[in-house]
Specification:
Blueprint (H helix, E strand, L loop, with lengths): L3 H7 L7 H7 L16 E3 L9 E5 L1 H7 L11 H9 L13 E3 L2 E4 L2 E5 L5 E9 L2 E8 L14 E2 H16 L6 E13 L3 E11 L5 H9 L3 H15 L9 H23 L1 E2 L21 E2 L23 H16 L12 H32 L8 H15 L3 H8 L11 H4 L5 H15 L6 H9 L9 H11 L5 H10 L30
Antiparallel strand pairs: 1-3, 2-9, 4-5, 6-7, 7-10, 8-10, 9-10, 11-12
Helix pairs in contact: 1-2, 5-16, 5-17, 6-7, 6-9, 8-9, 8-10, 9-10, 11-14, 16-17
Amino acid sequence: MFSLSNTVRAARDDTLSMDALASAIRVGEAGSFAALGSAFLTRLPATPVPDPYLVAISREMAESLGFDTELAESDEAAAFAAYFAGNPTREWPADALPYAAVYSGHQFGVWAGQLGDGRALTLGEVQRDSARLEVQIKGAGRTPYSRMGDGRAVLRSSIREFLCSEAMHHLDIPTTRALAIIGSDLPMRRESIETAAIVTRIAPSFVRFGHFEHFYSNDRIDDLRALADHVIDRFYPHCREADDPYLALLDQAVHTIADLIAEWQGVGFCHGVMNTDNMSILGLTIDYGPFGFMDGFNAHHICNHSDTQGRYAYSRQPQVGYWNLFCLAQALVPLFGDNLPEEGRSERIVEEAQKVMERYKTYFAPALEAKMRAKLGLEVAREEDVALANSLFEVMHANRADFTLTFRNLAKIAKADASRDAPVRDLFLDRAAFDAWAVRYRERLAHETHDDDARAEAMNRVNPKYVLRNHLAEQAIRQAARKDFSEVARLLDVLRHPYDEQPHYEAYAGLPPDWAGDLEVSCSS
């Protein structure tokens, strides 16, 4: 099997070869998205940035791709930074140009028409064991889909995406990954003057709901079918065995999105911009912008300062996921029913699609309930469990109790000793309200066979101690603006072990400081 690691090492004696790395990232291979052709993408080189330099690298992601991080730190460090900034040391061969994909989408519930990779270029794919992974640089300059934008990303947003991509992976939540951040002192105007950066992100595919909407809206059914066939053949071959493979693809999307949003809700994560062009057909968390992990719990929390109507508030994420799936279903309708007789075909297609869509509820509710039982340390399902979890959320909401610390500290509660409640009880201003809930919780724990220690151990495997709180990201960003990237590396190290006790990093698990309450994150973030 082709191995990037072996390719790189074979190409050098005592020095690392960027040429070998670049040749291992291939574009246009059979079965790839690029092989679908010019109707789906535009090939073009990146717009170079001056004097690129390495800001951060995920050693774990690099090793997953099969190459040594020495490439970023050896005599070839400058070549590494240049390559992942989109500044090749030699001219791109015509058949190896990166590409920007075209798609469309609904943004904040309104049809926006054609969109696309306005500032992202896919360099190609890496074959790693049995996996094929796309390598994409975000912030690489204008493309035909930039819509008046400059095609750039800034250091602030790139750090946030880099850290959260890796943090979500270690929380076991499906996500795109991040390899590196490349910086440049090129000035960029956002709310203020900032500097440019390019983040390298990795995924099996970057196909979004909006890709399907694009071809449906333009009545390009042959292209729509080619895209669906690409996704089925490469990622969901079992759908071919169904009576209607395209209906099976919709069912797969319904299931993966239901599971994904249940995971988000379970850790207090808000995406911020759940537009259909930001929804992955593989059920990955994608396009990290104005995201946020909640501090004090507010069921209606809006993490995106630009979301003035609260469309993407925490409590609305499950319904928005459902709405987005309806958009996907509509786009796939022309492909449904190939096996149906012509008479009554349209009615049957609508009926079958509606049945698939209704499964969202049967997928999402059990997934979230199972998540909450695990977070509460409950082994066996009982009828009262949903009400118990909901009542906890009500008390947390009323007290703005810290989401992450509440669930983490619940593990310290004992079945028969209320004196051990203090670590979680002290997070609630209304102690009596928490005490009343704790009585119900202990009554429920009486039906469990695990002892306190075994239950705590199980709870600590699903309730993280460390998440990417906004103030932690902000501290890393402020230091990085002074060319001190040590906090980015340190925070990445913390977030790689979110469920572990890390005594030397205890401060990263504390309540946010008072100044964090003034932080705002918008679409430009």
